[in-house]
Amino acid sequence: MKEKILEVNDLHFAYDNNKNALKGIDLTIYAGERIAVIGANGAGKSTFFLNINGVLTPDEGEILYRGTKITKKSLKELRKNIGIVFQDADNQIIASSVMAEVSFGPMNLKLPREEVRERTLMAMEYMNISDFKDRPPHYLSGGEKKRVAIADIIAMKSEIIIFDEPTAALDPLNAAMLEDVLSRLTDEGKTLLISTHDVDFTYRWADRVLVFCGGKIIADGTPLEIFQNKEVLKQANLLRPTMLDVYEALVQAKMLPADASYPKDLVEFEHCVKYSVKV
Ligand code: ADP
Fold it and tell me: 87 CB under 6 A from ligand 1?
């Protein structure tokens, strides 16, 4: 049976008593899931992330972490176990050297000094940033800063890692590096939530997709279920992944059989073409 990590029940949140940014979110997250969180700007994705990581406090509703209801006293438990890699690394990075930056989280957990050091070295190694451990993070390139921001969270050993639009400012090489890191984290059993506008990435990477719209989750399903649901796509102003369009066009033109399984990426697509097309 799938292991429940996080339960969110009827979560509401408003900024400064303005209109609700979250209007009743119900969700259960299971260990090891790869969840893409999609939807237009202002739909409530970031606000939701900040609520489940304890930075913001819900106005209504409850959050249970591993079956235990989170209260003001146990907020630390959420912050320790649910880490966020923010969209803009400059908003996350605060220390004057890379090493000091990466050690900041474990130090805040009040771990023994030796463990802080071990985790810091491990996280820098993991993200391949050990060579610039003494450099000021603010003078690194965008891709390097992103690696530091991810190392911050790796050093916390959080069970759930949230990435807020991680590929937004990355060049293709750094975007590929990020996908590699995501695969490694999944292999290690981490639960990942990623907000993104990249439907192609969502389609090939996620095993579950949440669609936010106007402060609510309007759809929750596999990438195929979501991207074949015209109503949801229209309501949330979403485009379809190119791979899905190309595949369905080939099936419709009878160039591929309709029963072939849907390819997720180029490798699967090539496999599908190779074994379906008669030569
Ligand atoms: P998303 O991450 O999907 O783009 P957000 O969670 O940032 O959406 O925003 C949800 C709603 O909350 C929007 O209406 C936005 O204008 C509002 N909002 C976001 N951050 C703040 C803030 N710091 N103060 C007031 N309103 C905010």
Answer: no
pLDDT tens, residue by residue, 213-250: 999 999 999 999 999 999 999 999 999 999 999 989 99
Q: In this structure, which amino acid lies at residue 95?
A: A
User: What DSSP letter does each residue of 69-137 carry, written as one string?
Assistant: E--STTHHHHHHHEEEE-SSHHHH--SSSHHHHHHHHHHHTT--HHHHHHHHHHHHHHTT-GGGTTS-G
CA of 16 to the centre of ligand 1 (A): 11
- Residues making up the chain, counted from first to last: 279
Neighbours of 103 (CB within 10 A): 23
Q: How far is the CA of 162 from the centre of ligand 1 (A)?
A: 17
Q: Kindly give the number of the ligand 1 atom that is closest to the alpha carbon of 195.
A: 2
What pTM did the predictor assign? Answer: 0.93
d(CA 94, CA 277): 55
User: What does the DSSP 8-state code read for residue 171?
Assistant: -
Chain centroid offset of residue 259 CA: 32
Chain centre distance of CA 48: 12
Cα-to-centroid distance, 44 and ligand 1 (Å): 6
Ligand 1 close to Cβ of residue 41 (< 6 A): yes
